[in-house]
Design goal:
Layout (H helix, E strand, L loop, with lengths): L1 H56 L6 H26 L3 H5 L1
Helix pairs in contact: 1-2
């Protein structure tokens, strides 16, 4: 009776704890992935804003070769940020733990 009931109760409590822990870990992983995506987007937007600001401020005073060089550098930086964003968007807890 009472001992068996306590045993079942303890077993059920343990199962509930494990289930809730798994759920918490999965939620934390999803939140972390979302945070990483937001941060990557912020970084990308900041890089785009900086690149456009440089181009806008120097538009009339830079020779064409220097402008092309700066534009190419900004383009390469943006491509790198897009690559990082793409990798982060595919990140999952399973991939992170590998």
């Amino acid at each position: 009776g009472n001992v068996e009931e306590r045993g079942r109760l303890a077993q059920r409590a343990g199962q509930e704890l494990l289930t809730s822990e798994d759920s918490r870990i999965a939620l934390a992983a999803r939140i972390g992935t979302a945070e990483a995506k937001v941060e990557a987007a912020r970084t990308r937007n900041a890089a785009e804003e900086t690149a456009l600001g440089i181009l806008r401020s120097d538009l009339g005073s830079v020779d064409p070769y220097e402008a092309a060089t700066r534009l190419e550098a900004a383009r390469n930086q943006l491509e790198s940020l897009y690559l990082v964003t793409a990798r982060v968007s595919r990140l999952s807890l399973t991939e992170f733990l590998r």
